[in-house]
Amino acid sequence: QVHLVESGGGEVQPGGSLRLSCVASGRGFDFVVMGWYRQTPGRQRELVAIVHSGLNPNYANEIKGRFTISRDYTKNSVDLQMNALKPEDTGVYYCNAGRHTTTGWTEDWGQGIQVTVSS
Predict the structure, then answer these.
(1) Contact of 79 with 67, CB cutoff 8 Å
(2) Could you tell me which of 24, 33, 23, 69 has the C-alpha nearest to residue 49?
C-alpha cells in the first residue's frame, strides 16, 4: 500500500512563497503520474500541476508562471514551489500519484495540507 506524506504547508502573506513536498512511502512502486490538486473554499478539488513520467509538466491556468512542480523519480517524490501567492490560493493541497497494478489503474492521495494566504 502506498502512503503519500505531505509537508511544507502553512500561512504566508500575499506575494510570499511556500514549498510543498510529497514523498511516497514504500518501495517498488512505479508511478506513471504524480502531482498536486487543491480544494479551495466553495470549489471542488481541482488540478494544480501534474507530471507524467517522461513528459513536461501540466499546470492549471490560474497558477502558470507562479508555481513550479518538480519530480524526483529516484525518491518517488514530488514538490510544488509556490511563488507570488494570492489569497485565492488558500485551500487544502493534496498530493496524488497514479500507477498501473495487476488489478488496473490505481490512484493514491495524501491526507491534504493546508495553505493559507492572508495579510
Answers:
(1) no
(2) 69
